[in-house]
Fold this protein.
Amino acid sequence: MVKIRKHKILPEEFPESWASDWGEDEYGLWMAFTYKGVKQIFRWCEPGTFLMGSPDDEPERLDNELQHEVTLTKGFWIADTPVTQALWEVAMGDNPSIFNGKEQPVDNVSWEDAQIFITKMNRVKAELKLCLPTEAQWEYACRAGTITPFSWGDQIDSTLVNFNGNYPYSHGSKSEYRGQTIGVKTLPCNDWGLYQMHGNVLEWCQDLYGHYPSWHIADPRGVDVGDHRVLRGGSCFNLGRYGRSAARDSHGKSSVSYGYIGFRLCRM
């Protein structure tokens, strides 16, 4: 059972020094910064406790998804979309993406490339305090209070997720296979206002990849030693099983980049 502590956050408690705009809507609190005309919205995730990983009876689960209880003791801000090509271009002056479109996620970026982008943005405005989400933050935000394989329930199709619809999840029906990324807000968001946590591009997390603990843990930060970074969310090329909330990809060395890998910003 997911336990989320709800409390009123007054506007004066917001980190307004970095925000160009803020508000509250049906999905909760949001804030945004605008850089050279490109706006990035962040959503507030309350502190809480959830079950990370997948239960033993979840169809098509992988053996690296040991379910365990995690508490995030502090709330955090996470971007409502992966970094777009528009934001990357105004910050970096180039575009490494294989699939081009300003509102599509930047792709073909390594974990190291993401760190360069983050460092540059933080130097422009230190108050941003940008970083990658931890793996626990990522899954917590992806689930948005759910315990099912996907934030929409037990099944998906290509109207919800940009994945290889020729290979549906758990006896589902085939659906469209686009074979490329799409605009970051083309498909519906989850209940916390976050878009495409499932599919489109795999997203880098801050953590090094490692085995999960079997016990309750607070604010996990991954293992201390390793040479692979965690990737989450599945991509436009992946089978349905890899877009599940619990699915983990461990093949990503920090220097590797492919046309199906991007990233999402978080705040320290």
Remarks:
- The CA atoms of residues 122 and 206 lie 16 Å apart.
